[in-house]
Amino acid sequence: DAGVTQSPTHLIKTRGQQVTLRCSPKSGHDTVSWYQQALGQGPQFIFQYYEEEERQRGNFPDRFSGHQFPNYSSELNVNALLLGDSALYLCASSPEVGDGYEQYFGPGTRLTVT
Amino acid sequence: GENVEQHPSTLSVQEGDSAVIKCTYSDSASNYFPWYKQELGKRPQLIIDIRSNVGEKKDQRIAVTLNKTAKHFSLHITETQPEDSAVYFCAASSGGYQKVTFGTGTKLQVIP
Q: pLDDT for B58-96, tens place per residue?
């Protein structure tokens, strides 16, 4: 049983460009959360998706948007990239059954903006 | 919103000694406190968690304590081993499927 997977592993973009990151949750998980982890910092919550809708959002600008598909996989889109968007982007999924506390993280996508 | 503070930022201990990492939180509604271990270049992995109806939880060499009144919680690692070297993050959440707020991390180095 595969855990949470993310693609691509690494990505280099130029300032002003747009990027799409992808996440496939662990089997049996229906909730996906996205986090941004800058170098030397803890992960910061971006938003969470459930039933194909954004259920809650952290303190990130509208340049950050997402989507969840019927198979529960998710995308994170970032428009008009800034140098400060360089970070490790982590996806975490939570199981359908249970109380929703546990989150399982994917390996992350390392985004570098030049 | 929730704010989680974590200390120390770095910690060096001799192999076999104990390590303690402390965190405070601000939101009295928080009721779930996970701890994650992140090795260099890898994903955060849940090592232990505690809920607000419990004051202490232990799993082999790892234990977590929670003081709801003071809004403090701590991670204790006994008999440290070199493979315990990593960055440890505390976190807080106000309930199931709620966002998790992380601390700034503690880089633990266990010296053989």
A: 999 999 999 999 999 999 999 999 999 999 999 999 876
pLDDT surpasses 90 at A5? yes
The residue of A45, A46, A94, A99 whose CB has the most chain B CBs within 10 angstroms, and thus the best one to mutate to test that interface, is A45
Q: Is the pLDDT of residue B105 over 80?
A: yes
Secondary structure (H, E, C), chain A: CCCCEEECCEEEECCCCCEEEEEECCCCEEEEEEEEECCCCCCEEEEEEECCEEEEECCCCCCEEEEECCCCCEEEEECCCCHHHCEEEEEEEEECCCCCCCCEECCCEEEEEC
Q: CB-based contact (8 Å) between B101 and chain A?
A: yes
Which chain B residues are within 8 Å of A107, Cβ to Cβ?
A: 42-43
Residue of A31, A55, A103 with shortest CB distance to B100: A103
